[in-house]
Specification:
The protein is of the alpha+beta class and 599 residues long. Strand 30, helix 10 and strand 31 form a beta-alpha-beta unit. This is Glycoside hydrolase family 2.
Length: 599
C-alpha cells in the first residue's frame, strides 16, 4: 500500500498509525470552576455541566461554541464512552495531543493520571478503570495560569491583548482519542536516517514486557518492513529479549534498476515502514510509519541539505486561525496554509512559539516544506521556569524527532525567558545546557539557541531586523565582521553575540524581517504602514533583495504568513485571503541572487 493509503484523515499521529482507534473529538460537557472547588465537591465523579464544548477547540474560541475570552484558571470536561468485552480484553490507551497547561484525568471516578505541559502529547492506560457498557465516564480537569514561568508562547498573561501577545489558550486544544492495544505492544520507535551510507537506524521501545525466563519463553518477534512505491526494499526480524531494541537497515537493493531515494524540497520522497510485533505467529501490534533519507549539516559557514548548500527562504508562521486560534479548524486549513506558503516561493517555515499539529508536519514531510521547530517561551527566569521549560522541551524533541521536514530546533527566541542573557552567566549556562541536552537527543540537526540576537552557543547565527529600507539594510550589514563581532548594534540596539562568546564561523540568517502592514486603525505592523499595493510591493522587493544581495547570509525568514488578531502584518489576512498577488511575492522570492552560501 502507498503512503496515502495508510494515512487516516483526522488520525492525530500520522507517523505512528494503528487501525484500531476511536476519535473522541466533538461534543463534551463543560464547566468553569474559577474558585477551584470542583475536586473538593467531587466533580471527578461527574458534574453538572453549564456548557457544551466542541473539543479540541478551547472555550476562548468561536469554534468551541462558547467564545468566552476572559481567563478562567480551572475548567472541566466530561463525556461517556462505550466499552465492550473485546475492548476490555486489551489495553485501552487514552491519548491527548495537547492540553494547556496541567491535565488531571479520572475514569469512572478513579484517578488515571496527571500531565503538565501545554505543548507536549501524553497518554494514560485506562484499562483498569473501565467496565462493559456505554456509561464509562471520562472527566478531565485542566488547570491554567497567567504565570510567566510556564511555557506560554504568544499567549497573553494580562487581561487584554497587547503587543504581539494574543488571547490565551486554556484546556484541550489538540485531538483526544482512544487506542486499543495488546498487553504487549510497540511503544515508540526513533528513526534516524544515515544519509552518507544509505541506511536507516531504528531504536524500538516496547511496552508490557516482563523480563527473565518468562520473556525468553514467549518467543516474541519484531519485524520491520521498509517499502517505497509499494515495493518491499528491505525486511528484517528481531527476537525480542528486552524492552529496548535497535537495528540498522541498508536501503540499497539487489535490483539493478533500484535507486536509493533522498528526501528534499524538490523531491520529497518518503519511505514507508511497517512494524509488526508477533508472538508464535500471532500479531500483537502493527504500526505504520514513514521516514525520509536526508541530512542536515553545517560546514564552512553554510547550511547543507544532503551535503549541498541550501538557501532557506522561510516565512514566520504563528499558526493562529480566526475562529479557532491555535487549533487548526480542519485538515484542509493546514493544507491550504502549506500550499499558499509554497505558492509564494517559500521553501520553509519558522513555526513561531508553537508546536504544531502532527498533521501539519506530516503534510510538510509529504510536500517538502522545511520547518524550524520553535518552543513556546516562558517570560521569567527562575528555578521553576527552568525546570518546566526543560522537561517540556525534551518531550517535544523526542516526540517530533522522526519528521524529515524539521531541519532546525529553536528553543529560545529574542531572549524571552532569558532577558539578561547578554551578560548574566546563569542564563547563559542555561542556554548552553539546553543546547547540549538537545544535541544529546538529536545530534543531527542544527540548534539555534536564542533566535534573533545575543547568541551564546549556537549552530546558526540568526538576526532580526525590521528595517524598512533596503538601502539601509545593505549599509548596516555590508561589514560582516562588524555585525558578528558586536562592533555594531542592530534591531533596537541588540548585538549578535552575548558577552563572553565569540563568532565561530557559523552560517548567518536574517530570521525575522518585513512585517509590512497596510494602513489600518485596527492593528499594527512593523514600521510605517503602506497605503497601496505598489508601496507594499516596492518595500517588500527592496528589503528582500537587499538581504539576498548579502553574499554571506544563507537565508531569511519573512514576517509573516497571516494576520493574527491585532497584528495585521501578514501576507494573508486572518481568514487566509492574499493581500498581494501571490505570483508577485513568488517572483521576488525566486529572483536569483547568487549567495556565497550556495557555492
Amino acid at each position: 500500500m502507498a503512503l496515502k493509503d495508510h494515512y487516516r484523515k483526522e488520525y492525530p499521529r500520522p507517523q505512528f498509525v494503528r487501525k484500531d482507534w476511536q476519535d473522541l473529538n466533538g461534543a463534551w460537557d463543560f464547566a468553569f470552576d474559577d474558585a477551584n472547588e470542583g475536586e473538593a465537591q467531587g466533580w471527578q465523579q461527574g458534574f453538572t455541566p453549564t456548557h457544551t464544548i466542541q473539543v479540541p477547540f478551547v472555550y476562548e474560541t468561536k469554534a468551541s461554541g462558547i467564545a468566552e475570552e476572559s481567563f478562567h484558571p480551572y475548567v472541566w470536561y466530561q463525556r461517556k464512552i462505550e466499552a465492550d468485552e473485546k475492548q476490555l480484553s486489551r489495553r485501552v490507551e487514552l491519548r491527548f495531543q495537547a492540553v494547556d497547561y496541567v491535565a488531571k484525568v479520572w475514569v469512572n471516578g478513579q484517578f488515571a493520571g496527571r500531565h503538565e505541559g501545554g505543548y507536549s502529547a501524553f497518554s494514560f492506560d485506562i484499562t483498569p478503570y473501565l467496565h462493559a457498557g456505554n456509561d464509562n465516564l471520562i472527566v478531565v480537569k485542566a488547570e491554567d495560569s497567567d504565570s510567566c514561568t510556564q511555557p506560554r508562547g504568544k499567549q497573553r498573561w494580562r487581561k487584554d491583548n497587547f503587543g504581539c501577545w494574543y488571547v490565551q489558550t486554556t484546556g484541550i486544544w489538540q485531538s483526544v482519542w482512544l487506542e486499543y492495544l495488546s498487553p504487549t505492544y510497540l511503544n515508540h520507535v526513533k528513526i534516524t536516517p544515515n544519509y552518507d551510507d544509505n541506511s536507516v537506524s531504528f531504536e524500538y521501545k516496547l511496552g508490557g514486557i516482563t523480563y527473565g525466563n518468562e520473556l525468553l519463553a514467549r518467543q516474541l518477534q519484531l519485524t520491520t518492513i521498509v517499502t517505497m512505491d509499494d515495493e518491499v526494499i528491505k525486511q528484517g526480524t528481531l527476537a525480542v529479549d528486552r524492552e529496548s531494541l535497535a537495528a540498522t537497515v541498508n536501503l540499497q537493493s539487489d535490483k539493478l534498476e533500484w535507486q536509493v531515494e533522498r528526501w528534499s524540497p524538490d523531491n520529497p520522497k518518503l519511505y514507508e515502514v511497517e512494524f509488526v510485533l508477533q508472538e508464535d505467529g500471532e500479531t500483537l501490534d502493527r504500526v505504520h510509519s514513514y521516514f525520509g533519507l536526508r541530512k542536515i549539516s553545517i560546514e564552512d559557514g553554510k547550511v547543507l541539505l544532503n551535503n549541498h548548500p541550501i538557501y532557506q527562504r522561510l516565512i514566520l508562521d504563528q499558526g493562529y486561525w480566526q475562529d479557532s486560534h491555535l487549533t487548526p479548524p480542519s485538515e484542509a486549513a493546514l493544507l491550504d496554509d502549506i500550499d499558499k506558503i509554497m505558492a509564494m516561493g517559500y521553501n520553509g517555515v519558522r513555526k513561531h512559539q508553537k508546536i504544531e499539529d502532527d498533521r501539519f508536519l506530516y503534510w510538510c514531510d509529504v510536500k517538502g516544506l522545511l520547518v524550524w521547530s520553535e518552543a513556546a517561551a516562558t517570560y521569567e527566569f527562575n528555578d521553576e521556569a527552568v525546570e518546566r521549560f526543560t522537561r517540556e522541551w525534551l518531550d517535544i524533541v523526542q516526540q517530533h524527532y522522526n519528521h524529515p521536514c524539521i531541519v532546525t530546533w529553536v528553543p529560545f527566541n529574542e531572549s524571552w525567558g532569558i532577558a539578561n542573557v547578554f551578560t548574566d552567566i546563569k542564563q547563559q549556562k542555561f542556554t548552553e545546557a539546553i543546547y547540549y541536552l538537545t544535541k544529546s537527543m538529536d545530534p543531527h540537526r542544527p540548534v539555534v539557541v536564542n533566535d534573533g540576537w545575543e547568541h551564546t552557543i549556537s549552530d546558526i547565527i540568526t538576526l532580526h531586523d525590521y528595517e524598512e529600507s533596503g538601502d539601509a539594510l545593505s549599509r548596516r550589514y555590508a561589514d560582516k565582521d562588524a555585525v558578528v563581532n558586536n562592533k555594531i548594534a542592530f534591531s533596537n540596539w541588540k548585538y549578535a553575540m552575548a558577552q563572553g562568546y565569540e563568532y565561530q564561523g557559523q552560517p548567518i540568517l536574517i530570521s525575522e524581517f518585513g512585517g509590512i502592514a497596510f494602513k489600518s486603525e485596527e492593528g499594527w505592523g512593523y514600521g510605517n504602514q503602506v497605503d497601496s499595493d505598489e508601496a507594499f510591493i516596492q518595500r517588500f522587493r527592496s528589503i528582500t533583495e537587499a538581504i539576498k544581495d548579502l553574499d554571506y547570509v544563507c537565508g531569511y525568514c519573512y514576517t509573516q504568513v497571516s494576520d493574527v488578531q491585532q497584528e495585521v502584518n501578514g501576507l494573508l489576512t486572518e481568514d487566509r485571503k492574499p493581500k498581494i498577488d501571490m505570483a508577485v511575492i513568488k517572483e521576488i522570492n525566486l529572483t536569483r541572487r547568487k549567495s556565497a552560501c550556495e557555492s
